[in-house]
Design a protein that fits this description.
mainly alpha
């Protein structure tokens, strides 16, 4: 490789220039594309986490997922260098505790309910935020259509327990709070550092729920590493993308676009896993796409 080639290579792979290219790519991507990328990562992380529930327990997996993601972000970004004033600790801590609680409640919910039931119930959270944020006829119609699409995709059944329903409702309420608090943190100086430190605080707060399963961790150290790694797919990537989206769009539109999560999961199952799909599921995907297009960028 010649001198000019080496200089060009160093320029392309230089960390500062790489970050600049990365930032331009993210800034140029539409919120819908970012949500789809985040959803794919999140559901891959959820599938990996669910596979070790029987070995470690849902609460321990949720705690390790949040703490693992927090440590990765804090170490990569050297967040300890940020001042407490920049981090706005009250809102950062509140955001992290809500995020961790949302993860914990959802994992416990799907341990007591079919996944479709839990997704449908939890989705009430972002629906409430979207409905409260903009009460135009267009927004309400789009929300109704998107909600029908989610219900069709969720394939709600009569199985499950009352505890599972309660936990899914709690996860939905915390999801609504996550949208409100996440938007605030994203617009402060904290941004991704606030996400990392917030998750660290949140992970420590929910950790007592997994004390009863701590002996399993000593028996299965490799599974503990797997649980920690789910934080990258399930938290770092999707919630990092959320922080980018929060800075670009309103809470109302962000909440509405959450309907892309179950639609993306269904499409991944159809295209990548070659899962058989019903007419109802295809209709559900179509309804969500129609609702997003119908609503457009109205805020």
């Amino acid at each position: 490789m010649g001198c000019l080639g080496r200089l060009g290579y160093r320029y392309l792979v230089g960390s500062r220039n790489f970050r600049g290219i990365q930032k331009r790519l993210i800034d140029s991507a539409s919120p819908e594309v970012l949500f789809i990328i985040g959803a794919i990562s999140q559901y891959m992380g959820a599938a990996l986490a669910f596979s070790i529930f029987d070995n470690l327990g849902a609460s321990l997996v949720a705690t390790l997922r949040v703490l693992g993601a927090a440590l990765i972000l804090v170490l990569l970004r050297k967040s300890w260098r940020r001042s407490l004033q920049d981090l706005d600790m009250f809102w950062t801590a509140s955001f992290g505790i809500v995020l961790a609680g949302m993860n914990l409640c959802f994992y416990l919910a799907i341990d007591n309910l079919p996944l479709g039931n839990a997704v449908a119930i939890e989705f009430l959270g972002p629906i409430a935020v979207a409905a409260a944020g903009r009460r135009s006829v267009k927004n309400i119609v789009a929300l109704i259509v998107a909600s029908l699409g989610v219900l069709l995709l969720a394939q709600v059944t009569s199985e499950g327990t009352a505890a599972g329903v309660f936990l899914a409702l709690a996860a939905g309420a915390l999801w609504a709070l996550y949208i409100v608090l996440g938007s605030r943190v994203a617009r402060t100086g904290a941004h991704l550092d606030g996400l990392g430190i917030g998750m660290l605080i949140g992970g420590l707060v929910i950790s007592p729920t997994s004390i009863h399963a701590i002996d399993r961790a000593f028996d299965s150290p490799m599974l503990v590493l797997v649980a920690l790694s789910t934080g990258v797919l399930g938290n770092v990537i999707p919630y990092g993308i959320d922080q980018v989206a929060f800075r670009r769009i309103s809470k109302t539109r962000f909440a509405f676009l959450q309907s892309l999560l179950p639609a993306t999961a269904a499409c991944v199952g159809i295209l990548a896993l070659r899962q058989k799909t019903s007419i109802g599921e295809l209709l559900g995907i179509g309804l969500i796409i129609f609702a997003i297009g119908f609503r457009g960028k109205e805020d």
